[in-house]
Amino acid sequence: MLPDIENLLKLQGTDKEIRRLQDEIAEFPKRAAVIEQKLAGTKAQLEKAQAAVKADEAARRKYDTAIADLRGKISKYRDQSLDVKTNEQYKALLHEIQFAEKEIAANEDKILELMVNADARDKEVKAAQAELKAETAEIEKEKEQARQRTAEDEKQLTEWRGKRDQIRTGVNEDLLRHYERVSKFRGSGLAEVLNSKCVGCQVMLRPQTYNEVRTGQHTVICDSCQRILYFNPEHELVPEKMTITRARRHHPKIDAPQAWYYKSDFANEGEVYMCLTNSGGQATRRVYEMHTGRLFGDILSREGDYRHAFPEDITGAIRLNGGWKEEELEIWGTELPMVVLDALLADLEAARYEMQARPAAKPEAAAAVPTEQAAS
Ligand SMILES: [Zn+2]
User: Fold this and answer.
1) How much distance in Å is there from the Cα of 376 to the middle of ligand 1?
2) What CA–CA distance (Å, rounded) separates 235 from 338?
3) Separation of 3 CA from ligand 1 center, angstroms?
């Protein structure tokens, strides 16, 4: 991986952490507002309960006054009854007295009702007061925690900003500008390439672009989303899948009309894949650069079968699984498709694993004495 890309990945990590801290700091006042609102609700409830108590007290006073007035009237009627001359007048006064007594009883009933209610009202007030006290204590605790947390976050934010500035100095300026521009619009400036796709926008890359990202010799930008692309070989091969492949690796047939080989160094040009085919008494050899899949040199044809026509190439090479039609090879021309490169690479990994596990399975020693295993 290019050092610039490694630094940008670190930068992306710090940017993410800085954003997380900023979001967290911004979140505290919102949470405090929610608690304050709840507190205001409890306060209103308490005030309502207290107002109800006051209203009851006022009503009680009103009934007490009414009763006192009625008692006054009764006493006045009794005084008058001493001076009445006729039986009718006496009866009328008695009627007034009875009426006032009924009124007194009605008022007394209402007072009794208020007294019964007063217990419930008292409980409401006390409950609201207790709740308010608990909530106030809770909010103070939360506010204190928020204060401490914010202070801690601010401290970390300063540290992360310092780290970010440090990393920025290690990245090429143009690339950094590009990264920041794309980050601003898309939320991220980097995208991993997985299974020939840009993870950022899910668009399939052209084989050549994919190969360029894989080799990691210069920076490549996604044509469709402009993110800077990177490749992590550890993510490409799922370990589980590899285990299965390794456990069940098929072995190529010795007499196959087409054979694929891996050579760690070909004509001092590095790692290559070689495709040897037998057809009509002729052997053909194609050599492809391993990482880019580009055809290397000319396609060679010689008399006889490939084992005897190209023995020097087979020596020390690792035989791989692979069989494609002659027409396909021609259509691909000078560049192997990614699927073929991936299949060959997966089989190469499996073959290497097998060689480690079972030393008997070794690269080919010589063309005359093929040591590869027979098909299982
Ligand atoms: Zn993209």
Assistant:
1) 43
2) 16
3) 21
Distance CA 62, CA 114 (A): 12
The model's pLDDT over 191-222, given as tens digits with 9 standing for 90+, comes to 999 888 999 999 989 888 998 999 888 899 99
- Rounded distance between C-alpha atoms, residue 116 and residue 249, angstroms: 89
Q: What sign does the dihedral 168-225-188-12 (CA atoms) show?
A: negative
CA of 210 to the centre of ligand 1 (A): 12
User: If you measure from the C-alpha of residue 167 to the centroid of ligand 1, how many angstroms do you get, rounded to a whole number?
Assistant: 24
- The secondary element (H helix, E strand) that includes residue 198 is strand 197-198
Instruction: Tell me, in angstroms, the distance from the centre of ligand 1 to residue 189's CA.
Output: 10
pLDDT tens for each residue of 236-257: 755 444 455 555 677 888 888 8
Ligand 1 centre to CA of 179 (Å) is 13
Nearest to 243 by CA among 346, 362, 339: 346
| DSSP count for the chain of H helices, then E strands | 10, 9
Q: Report the C-alpha gap between 187 and 15 in whole angstroms.
A: 10
How many whole angstroms from 19 Cα to the centroid of ligand 1? 22
Tokens of 133: 């006290």
State in Å: Cα 225 to ligand 1 middle.
4
| DSSP helix, strand, coil percent of the chain (3-state; round to 5) | 60, 10, 25
